[in-house]
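Chapter summary example.
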Amino acid sequence: MKCSLSSSPSFVTLLAGLFLLSSAATASSIDFRDSIRHEFKMGLVAPRQGGGRNLQTFTGSLGAPPSAITETGDPKRPFGVDGSTFTDFESAANRACDNQKNECAQIANNQGGNGEFSVNECDRQQEQCKAAAKQAEAQVPTATASAEATFFSSNAEFDFFCE
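The structure predicted for these 163 residues follows.
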């Protein structure tokens, strides 16, 4: 079994600093950036992806903005919404749309029928949100670090992947 590891950005930064110091001391002609790019392409070192970008594409904000759909960095549950994690994008997107609808409906109900919008409008927004999520699902990145590597284990500093 061939295994590799993924570290937090601070560990990679530390390694990069040590490499730069050793390169400067030996006057090595190796371009550090090319070396690191090569390692990442080979899948030997991959930084954690947790706290990733927002994959939410819906922009409607009647009553409340849509919940963010984020990359968790966990290959088994790669998507997160409001503290919950999901195995697939569709489930995460549905939760984000449902959370937004619930917030919208609560605001509409608190207005006592005299407000700017009704619960029916919140329902329509939820349908639009879920339709946007179906279109966005095709553009969502895959959860695994590489085609051959599979998440094996982790500790506080590393994620371990094996082929």
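To summarize the output: The chain is about 45% helix and 15% strand.
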